[in-house]
Design a protein that fits this description.
The complex is a heterodimer of chains A (about 240) and B (about 140). By secondary structure, chain A is an alpha+beta fold. Chain A has one domain. In chain A, strands 1, 2, 3, 4, 5, 6, 7, 8, 9 and 10 form a 10-stranded antiparallel beta sheet that branches. In chain A, strand 9 and strand 10 form a beta hairpin. Chain B has a 5-stranded mixed beta barrel. In chain B, a hairpin with a 5-residue loop joins strand 4 and strand 5. With about 140 residues, chain B is mainly beta. Chain B has a single domain, classed as Beta Barrel (OB fold (Dihydrolipoamide Acetyltransferase, E2P)), CATH 2.40.50.140. Chain B has 2 helices and 6 strands. Chain B is globular and about 35 Å long. The longest helix of chain B has 7 residues. The chains are: A alpha+beta (about 240), B mainly beta (about 140). Chains A and B meet through helix 2 of A and helix 1 and helix 2 of B.
Chain lengths: ~240, ~140
């Protein structure tokens, strides 16, 4: 870039390593697709969940709760960092003052690159949070807060709350590869911060396609039927 | 481990469709919606393939044991993901006979998550199932 910073712009696909079905390493036996795990801290790769959060997670994986994932309702503001490991590509557009990420299947994010900028008042709560970026050498560091606590971290139902803050680090390691790290701090859900890492691969020939999630949505009624059946089973 | 969820189909016919490996896509948890303990194998005729959202669906008419015809619905991957793997609308005209293996919905309806599809000529397509036990 003219300002001497790396240009992250381009079409990318993330090596999500199955994180959309669980951030921890998990086998197929869980019935969610298997995943290699993307938690790099704590070193054991386990989410440091509080006890109540583990119970809530189990609940979200029952037939009565699968309907509750906002993205199943085409709420495309997937939160942070889910958009970066959902198995769908994204396009990064960078200027000296902004990084804009257009996710094919999820809502866009706009990230002002301005270390002097201040976060929104605490009363303003957003699905994607309020993000501010700054450069540390060749790494773009983005701090986000002001979340509303509604997004699920993935289809497994992993949890964050409105107390979440996220620090993301976009580090280009060559012309076509970015190492992405996100450290999540949420004292209402977790006993300590944790960090996930995925790799973004640039595809110069990649092309974004249109997504019209609401149009002719066949899933929602089915999920509602399953939910109702699940609730019925619970009552028996 | 999304790379193992892709599947490459290169049929030994001139009109073969070669599908590049791609991650499966889904908007919701398989575990909550489908039952991995209810594997099914259904043969029927395509009524319609809906390139709908957030997932495409294939509807089959199936001859039941009582002589009647049952309508089954199979969830596949998201339309964009199928397109990138080489699927096209014209690939499944009405009347095409298919054998679909998948997992039935937890509510016991004639609804399932499609794991694999076999065409009459033997070609097999990976349907983008959310189930980890789906064909690799």
């Amino acid at each position: 870039m003219p300002d001497g910073k790396p240009d992250l712009s381009g079409f990318y696909e993330s090596q999500g390593r199955g994180a959309n079905y669980g951030l921890e390493e998990h086998a197929g036996a869980t019935m969610l697709p298997p995943g290699q795990g993307i938690v790099v801290d704590p070193p054991d790769g386990k989410l440091p969940m509080q006890d109540w959060a583990r119970e809530e997670l189990k609940s979200r994986q029952t037939p009565a709760r699968g309907y509750d994932d906002p993205t199943a309702h085409c709420v495309m503001a997937a939160g942070v960092p889910r958009g970066f490991y959902v198995p769908s590509p994204f396009f990064i557009m960078q200027t000296p003052t902004h990084l804009v990420v257009l996710f094919e299947r999820m809502a866009w994010r706009q990230i002002p690159i301005d270390p002097k900028r201040r976060h929104l008042p605490d009363t303003v709560r957003l699905w994607q949070g309020d993000s501010i970026g700054r450069w540390e050498g060749d790494t773009l560091v983005v701090e986000s807060r002001n979340f509303n606590g509604k997004p699920w971290l993935n289809e497994a139902g992993e949890i964050t709350s409105h107390a979440l803050t996220v620090v993301e680090r976009f580090t280009p390691v060559n012309a076509n590869t970015i190492i992405y790290r996100a450290t999540l701090t949420d004292p209402l859900v977790y006993t300590r911060p944790f960090t996930v890492e995925v790799q973004f691969n640039r595809d110069e020939k990649g092309e974004m396609l249109e997504v019209a999630c609401h149009e002719d949505n066949q899933d929602l009624q089915h999920m509602k039927d399953v939910k109702d059946a699940g609730i019925g089973l619970e009552k028996k | 481990m999304q790379n193992i969820r892709g599947f490459i189909v290169c049929a030994a016919v001139a009109a073969a469709v070669c599908l590049a490996a791609a991650p499966a896509v889904a908007h919701h948890a398989f575990a909550a919606e489908f039952d991995a303990d209810k594997p099914i194998k259904i043969t029927g005729k395509v009524v319609e393939m809906r390139w709908s959202n957030p997932h495409a669906w294939i509807y089959l008419d199936v001859a039941a044991a009582n002589g009647k015809t049952e309508r089954w619905a199979f969830e596949t991957g998201a339309a964009n993901g199928l397109f990138r793997r080489g699927w096209r609308k014209e690939d499944l005209p009405a009347g095409t006979v298919l054998v679909i293996q998948g997992w039935q919905a937890r509510n016991g309806s004639n609804t399932a998550n499609a794991g694999s599809i076999t065409f009459p000529d033997g070609r097999r397509l990976f349907a983008g199932s959310s189930n980890p036990n789906a064909e690799k």
